[in-house]
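Thread: quick sanity check before group meeting

JM: Hey all, I'm pulling together slides for Thursday and realized we never actually wrote out the predicted structure for the chain we discussed last week. Dropping the sequence here so it's in one place. If anyone has concerns about the input, flag it before I start.
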Amino acid sequence: MRIASWNVNSVRKRVTHLCAWLERTKPDIAVLQELKATDEQFPRLEVEAAGWRVETVGQKGFNGVALLARQPVEIVLRALPGDPDDAQARYIEGRVETPQGPLHVGGLYLPNGNPIATEKFTYKLAWMERLRARAEALLADETAFVLAGDYNVCPTAVDVYDPKAFAGDALCQPQSRAAFRRLVNLGLTDALRAGQPTGPLYTYWDYQAGAWSKDQGLRIDHLLLSPKAADRLSGAGVDKSERGKAEPSDHVPVWCELNLD
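JM (edit): ok, ran it. Output follows.
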């Protein structure tokens, strides 16, 4: 089973790229972030015609997440538990049946948190603690799961092309990295780093200052696997070529493969 994640940075602008990528790579489940569209505005007809079931949590002009699946999926959450007043569209979680038992896939768009001296950074850290609580709950049920999406965290200095330039950015703050480590230290596996433990492995390149052509990237898109899922991990990667296309997203897809036969 191939599980993929992509921050498409406006699904209506990238629908042609999205459908071509789906056809070429054929993920079994794909989670999308930063739709910048309501549920009604999502290009459902195009994606469904390509063979995928579509579930969305949209928001006008901002945020928004989706879960696409080639098989029946039960949506178990359309918001991250822990704050009933949080109206931002940032989380969706589905359950699929596999020959090895049920698998939960959470698609997330973690808050950016900038500027750090504002409530936006406080919200980011609180959201990360809620995500950790959700992971703990799934682990307590011995559920196999993948938490995939745009985490807006560079876990280490290797994951940012210029650590000094990003020293004041919310993506690289000690608190952000510590919250990410607390999540991983529950026993989760960073799928991309399982395949490439060292060296740059970027998933995002800014539109400004020739970042793509200079390979000035960040690794902020991650797939974290529970022990039961990690035991089945057979591969992971980054579809870097998507960033070189005309009018691309500033993120590229990331994916992992699980042997669930």
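AS: nice. DSSP finds six helices and 14 strands in the chain. Residues 63 and 100 are 33 Å apart (CA to CA).
JM: adding both to the slides.
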